[in-house]
Amino acid sequence: MSIDPAAELPFFYGSISRSDAEQHLKLAGMADGLFLLRQCLRSLGGYVLSVVWNLEFHHYSIEKQLNGTYCIVGGKPHCGPAELCEFYSKDADGLVCTLKKPCLRSPDTQIQSGVFDSLKENMLREYVRQTWNLEGEAMEQAIISQAPQLEKLIATTAHEKMPWYHNKITRQEGERRLYSGAQPDGKFLVRDREESGTFALSMMYGKTVYHYQILQDKSGKFSMPEGTKFDTIWQLVEYLKMKPDGLVTVLGEACLNGKPENFIALSLFQRRPIGNGYTPPPRAISTALPAAASLPPNREVLPMDCDGFNPYHNPNDVKRFNIQRSQLLMDEVELGSGNFGCVKKGVLKTDSGQIDVAIKVLKNENEKLVKEEMMREAEIMHQLSNPFIVRMLGLCNAENLMLVMEMASAGPLNKFLTTKKDTITVENIVNLMHQVSMGMKYLEEKNFVHRDLAARNVLLVNQQFAKISDFGLSKALGADDNYYKARTAGKWPLKWYAPECINFHKFSSKSDVWSFGVTMWEAFSYGGKPYKKMKGPEVIRFIESGNRMDCPSVCPERMYTLMKECWTYKHEDRPDFKKVEESMRLYHYSISNKAKPEGDAAAAEPVK
């Protein structure tokens, strides 16, 4: 779930009214330059800066721009609300004064959630459920990994799923539908106008139908004529259920469009008190059925669009471990090979359809020990179920022993990045590494140690979807154990190993964290080889001397800081994957859909 960028600011109060903000400022002493930050009720992701000057209150709207920056109307853009406030503490730049003293929340004052906050979170869930038919943990993983992209989709397309949206109907047909059945005041619908790209609101009052054009300005905001502007149509509709804003009355009962399969459940709109104590009237609850997935035009492909996000459509497919040879179709072309044998592309036939797979085929002449190792890898992988981990679909013992895994056709991350330097953005890499951190957090929670995390073992389904693979060295720890100790050293990837692995053969989730740092370095180096041309012993001396690899040239500072935290020498001082994933997620959310600020504008104006 996305976290409000201002949530950690001690002078941020959340969704409070103007009068509540002024009351807080009064209690804090009304000094010149005293200020607080609150959520804007009109725009998604926007804020209001409330400032005291000469014993008067001044309120400035802060809008989130399409490029992800924040600015006061007419002011300079900033990458976040904290940076904006810091700027205005040094330069008034159109405000009545500089920001001098924050009005801090008292310890017992909680940040007030906004009138649309819970609505948005529920809408995300319903959107994911209906679009990709995901539930439970798969749904949560989808939302956490892709929250910025999903919120953007909700903002621009959610009205199409609403029961009050009737798509392209004429004015006369709108009237016919409103007159059909009961005709309470406030009964309404939204429809497309005959003029392409515009909308109309039709509503009932006193047994008469009134029609209002929904205006959209050049910046894309929606409003009634001379009314309050909103980022989305659904947000405008919710507001009009509370205040008429130029209508003959507030909106009440929705005139249903007769297509329940397209509804986002009306249980989203449960009554919820807001800043002024007003509770919206209750609405009916729909029993919505999931809609078939469809990919809107001009939308980028998301991980959830791929079968690999949740390949099982039948619960029985998950339970099966032994696969019959007759279920497999195998291509002769090899995807890769090694001492164990080779990997071939294939298709697995299941009760619910066909799945593209990668088949790891063991050479018959391999020793019994290799076969046992391959069996153990299959058993380990079959226990794991996470969208960001390559799934082991089963084992087939026919002419050869074969491990059947889901396909990640874009190949290893390091090779992919090496060939795509000109097309893969830093934001894309951050997104992929966040997905890897989510997979590793899952392993940590399941008490698994990977022991071979590296960019070569991160496979891509596509440019936006990564999966952790190769569990040949993995270990399941006992319930009371927090590390595994290897009896002897093998052919270990020393450049990815933490000091305690090399020196004492001790492996834990914290040693996987070290490897994650090296994998990050590879990713931000676009597939570069860590430690350049150093040999294993040289790497050990390099680390023991307190040295760490330099920051890759395109790597953001916050990401390099996280890398260095992962490379903390003492394992007990390293972050765990819960902390690593949180750091990756917050940075991923903060840069999603951002671009470089473009230009400045005129002076700032207070909100009227």
Automatic annotation (TrEMBL):
Gene this protein is translated from: ZAP70
Residues binding ATP: L335, G336, S337, G338, N339, F340, G341, C342, V343, K360
Active site: D452
Entry EC no(s): 2.7.10.2
Protein name listed in UniProt: Tyrosine-protein kinase
Swiss-Prot/TrEMBL keywords: ATP-binding, Cell membrane, Cytoplasm, Immunity, Kinase, Lipoprotein, Membrane, Myristate, Nucleotide-binding, Repeat, SH2 domain, Transferase, Tyrosine-protein kinase
Lineage of the species this protein comes from: Eukaryota, Metazoa, Chordata, Craniata, Vertebrata
Uppermost EC category: transferase
PANTHER family: TYROSINE-PROTEIN KINASE
Cell compartment(s), UniProt: Cell membrane; Cytoplasm
One cellular-component annotation, GO: plasma membrane
Catalyzed chemical reaction(s): L-tyrosyl-[protein] + ATP = O-phospho-L-tyrosyl-[protein] + ADP + H(+)
Sequence ranges assigned to domain SH2 in this UniProt record: 11-103, 164-255
Main localization category: membrane
Gene Ontology biological process: immune system process; intracellular signal transduction
Domain of life according to the entry: Eukaryota
One annotated GO molecular function: ATP binding
Pfam families recorded: PK_Tyr_Ser-Thr (PF07714), SH2 (PF00017)
Protein family according to the UniProt entry: Belongs to the protein kinase superfamily. Tyr protein kinase family. SYK/ZAP-70 subfamily.
Domain Protein kinase: 329-591
Organism of derivation: Lates calcarifer (Barramundi)
